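Technical note accompanying the year-one report. For the benefit of new consortium partners, we illustrate the data format agreed upon in the data management plan: each record pairs a sequence with a structure-token string. No post-processing was applied to the example shown here.
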Amino acid sequence: MSVVHHTVALRDAGVAIDADVVVPELARGVVLFAHGSGSSRHSPRNRFVAGELQRAGLATVLADLLTAEEEQLDARTGHLRFDIGLLATRVVALSDWVTHHDQIADLPVGLFGASTGAAAALVAAAQRPDAVAAVVSRGGRPDLAGGHLRAVRQPTLLIVGGRDDVVIELNRQAMGQLAGETRLEIVPGATHLFEEPGALEQVARLARDWFVRYLSRVPPDEER
């Protein structure tokens, strides 16, 4: 399994951001993580999920959607984490970069979005219908993707904690607008950050199964 750190120049966005790319042997697909709410590529929750995906044969790309200066500004104001247009532009640019990266260029691409990053992932999926094959949202705010939801035709899994009542309702409303196959999974007893024992493990399994199903060139049933 190769682990490579990249500084990615996003020409269209006019910035350079850091990304960690992990590619298992004989990878079947690649998942790009889009985070929000002041998180970064070092998020222990996203890294936990990424580890489960890697063990299932999926490459992962964890990137900082904000520069170091922007992260400092966001830590003071909290504004940039809700700038879905900015975040989505970065996710789109990263998706384009992934499709040209030597080790993963030919792999089907999935997007894993957390919190406001889920909205950015869905906007990117709407704008890159041929490049993005599937989407998973963890504790996400798909409602913040607005009118872009109707253009998302990729299979989309929405995962929400059972005690995250407001976000559950927002996800249910978004389901009615998504154009493609959509499923809502509610993790019993979990709050917004899935910090309860076993909650994040369930998120990782759900995400793994969804991506293995929709990113694999060979259906899982035929691999056995």
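Partners are asked to follow this layout when depositing records. The chain has a mean pLDDT of 89.
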